[in-house]
Design a protein that fits this description.
Distance between the termini: 71 Å
Number of helices: 20
Shape: elongated
CATH superfamily of the largest domain: HUPs
Radius of gyration: 32 Å
Strand content: 5-15%
Helix content: 40-55%
Number of domains: 4
Length: 512
């Protein structure tokens, strides 16, 4: 259970997802949302989305709207966000710009940060001069900053409006520690960490300053993020210590990576392109180059399956159960059972989850998506009742929603191609005559239910001294066009008498 996470805490559980609007939403990002969401809802807390758009050079138009569309599709709606509002608005960092400088200035005043006036050209020259150059306690004394300039020189540069950044002044040889909810105690030596920029030349904060200030002001109780952020942790721990006191810092958890299928490295969009599977939640069209990246939604995944699959990448309930509804995930989720190691992504397993959810859900929940897919193939379904019957009949044969097109199209439209070659090797005059007789029998049939059709068909076969098994495949191909589909008499019942007879006649003409 999650109860012990609240020990010694009187504040309400508040978690946040803080994406940058720079492009498509990777499934790793959605999993971070999911773990935040499940943790908060399990403990009756709030889930907040805060847009971290302080790096205006990477801002991509439409990306923020896309992020919220993805979360809505997944059923992971925030309690507070730029769209939903809330008591700690604004929820876009670009709209909070004026408040960050005071904290950066306070750090300078207290001796924990400094002004750096180095130009881009000076920094480039230093990088060429020194291999793997880092602006740090080892190099800052040779740079142009308020630590090497006199107070008067510094104040004059500021008064003249000379461009500058504010950097954290990392202490020498200090062990910076914090307790991670997944990894236990984590420790860093401050001498190995460079003096990160906190406030940029455009007065926008970097992630390092903004995340600490906003988490404090928004009363965030727990902060979950990917393990790739671990190297930044010592900077953030010190900022908490310097600005707000370490006791006010959220409890942290650094989530394991989602790995490539072979386990060698973090899963990327490039891997998806190379191996033929999506890595984004929904289709993303890059406005810069018009490049379209396919998402899980458009590939035919149900949101229930996508969320279920993501939950099992790096977490388990401690049982053999694999299929979980959102309510079940909320009830069972605990950070205790999040793995330390990375989780390999398996697209075949992802499709398995989807197939299981297609079987599990009432078909009415996805009938509109299927009718839309059929319409794209020129098949307009006007009879909703028939569509529901068809979907129920074929859903066990479908893994992704587009599979319904092949499995269901022939119920509404005569097959464009018929696999005559599969019938011909065992076809003879006796079967030709049998099906001619079957046509007359079907035309005269007063009953048109699957069981009655099957009974009369088998009686006719017996009367003609033919085995029903020899006749079922030809009948299936006549009605469906190929060797697939549900029970052949159930097919006949649903497509109706006239269509059944018409399709048998058409194939008999070709065979004869």
């Amino acid at each position: 259970m999650n109860d012990h996470y609240l020990c010694g805490m009187s504040k309400k559980v508040r978690v946040r997802f803080a994406p940058s609007p720079t492009g498509g939403l990777h499934l790793g990002g959605v999993r971070t949302v999911l773990f935040n969401y499940l943790f908060a809802k399990n403990l009756g807390g709030d889930f907040i989305v805060r847009i971290e758009d302080t790096d205006q050079t990477r801002f991509v138009p439409g990306a923020e709207e896309y992020i919220f569309n993805c979360l809505q599709w997944c059923g992971l709606e925030p309690d507070e966000s730029p769209l939903h509002g809330g008591p700690y608005a604004p929820y876009r960092q670009s709209e909070r710009k004026p408040l960050y400088r005071q904290y950066a200035e306070q750090l300078i005043k207290d001796g924990y940060a400094y002004y750096a006036f180095d130009t881009a050209e000076e920094l480039d020259a230093k990088r060429k001069e020194v291999a793997n150059f880092q602006y740090s306690q080892h190099t800052r004394s040779g740079m142009r900053n308020s630590l090497t300039l006199s107070e008067a020189e510094t104040q004059q540069l500021l008064a003249d409006g000379v461009q500058h950044v504010i950097r954290i002044k990392m202490p020498a040889d200090v062990e910076v520690k914090f307790a991670d909810m997944i990894r236990g105690e984590v420790s860093f030596n401050s001498s190995l960490v460079d003096d990160k920029v906190l406030l940029k030349a455009d007065a926008m904060p970097t992630y390092h300053l903004a995340v600490v200030v906003d988490d404090y002001l928004m009363k965030i109780s727990h902060a979950f993020r990917g393990e790739e952020w671990l190297p930044s942790a010592p900077v953030h721990v010190l900022l908490w210590q310097y600005l707000f006191g370490i006791d006010n810092m959220p409890q942290w958890a650094h989530l394991p990576l989602i790995l490539k299928p072979d386990g060698n490295g973090k899963l990327s969009k490039r891997d998806g392109d190379r191996l033929g599977f999506p890595v984004f939640a929904m289709d993303w069209k890059d406005p810069k180059n018009e490049e379209m990246t396919t998402g899980f939604k458009e590939r035919g995944f149900l949101p229930e399956a996508f969320v279920n699959m993501l939950a099992m990448l790096g977490w388990n309930a401690g049982t053999e159960q694999e299929i979980f509804s959102m309510d079940e995930l909320i009830a069972k989720f605990s950070m205790d059972r999040v793995h330390k190691g990375g989780a390999k992504f398996d697209y075949e397993k992802a499709k398995w989850y989807n197939g299981e959810w297609i079987k599990k859900l009432d078909v009415s929940s996805f009938r509109f998506q299927v009718s839309g897919l059929l319409a794209e193939k020129g098949i307009v379904v006007a009879d909703d009742e028939k569509l529901i019957k068809v979907l129920n009949l074929v859903k066990d044969r479908c893994t992704l929603l587009p599979d319904f097109v092949q499995q269901a199209a022939f119920f509404f439209k005569q097959p464009e191609t018929v696999d005559i070659a599969a019938i011909q090797p065992k076809w003879d005059e006796k079967k030709q005559l049998f099906f001619a007789e079957a046509i007359r029998m079907f035309e005269q049939s007063a009953l048109w239910q699957a069981a009655d059709l099957e009974a009369s068909f088998k009686e006719l076969a017996a009367a003609n001294q033919l085995k029903p098994g020899e006749l079922m495949l030809p009948l299936r191909i006549m009605l469906v066009g190929g060797k697939f589909g549900p029970g052949v008499f159930e097919i006949a019942e649903l497509i109706g008498k006239a269509e059944t007879v018409s399709r048998i006649k058409a194939v008999l003409t070709e065979l004869g």
